[in-house]
Amino acid sequence: MWVRDLQHEVTMTHQPTRVIGAASVLALFAGACSFETSAAEEAGLSENVGVQRSELHKGQPGAIVGQSNYCDDPLQLCAAGEGDCDSSAGCQPGLVCGRGKSVQFGLTAGDACVPAHCTNKLHDADETQIDCGGTCGTTCAPPTCGPNGGAERCTTDCPCDVGEGDCDSNEECLTGLVCSRGKLIQYGLVAGDACVPAHCTNKLRDADETQIDCGGSCGTTCAPPTCAPNGGESDAAPIASAASAKVTAIRMTHASRAWSVAAANSASTSPPLVMLACPLIASITA
Q1: How many Å apart are CA 135 and CA 17, to the nearest integer?
Q2: Whole domain around residue 276: which residue ranges?
Q3: pLDDT tens-digit profile of 126-151?
Q4: Domain final position from 203, 224, 245
């Protein structure tokens, strides 16, 4: 008898524990499932913020460009500027699904089918700025220009003025300027390439420069000039050598002409002309 009562007591004592444990496990699973669904919904909403939800596809009555499933019918592919697309498979041949491009076609949000050049991060084809304008849609946000010296400062959308950089090509500078390697340091920045007048790169001291390719409009932070040993060529040598060679050539030409005149007159028995020519030659070649 006491054995049966003990078994009953044990059964009654442990049965609630088993029930509670099962309920707890079910609650945990329910919570996990609820969390996963919420995360998935949140991700879906974040990708389609502002896009009108609809099950209608292009070609169906009531379907509107920009709705969430507009480009989902493989028999009704979207043309340029139409969306919302989920991949390039929903676009007509030659087009790609460009993320966020619907805005450039006057819609509030979403992805749109566009020519491939509208997504290459270059200012090309019929664009008026990088990946916008022309066939990429004409509703373009103002270009964002980075700080001077930064990698995003000079672009075809933000052409740089004198002393600005970092540039990668002449096309990223204002008209009349060139992108010169390492010139930013001459404008007080640490390093990088800068847009400068062309004379700042010709290895001559000209225009408003205070030394070869530095000073004035070329930037005033100039390194000390490198002077060669006695007898060698210094930084100023190209100018001096060029000027000297030009003057010497002129003098030699005049001297040659003078000798010719003197010789001709000497042959015609006019010695005084020869005597006059000698001082002239000496003064020219001095």
Answers
A1: 69
A2: 257-286
A3: 999 999 999 999 999 999 899 999 99
A4: 224
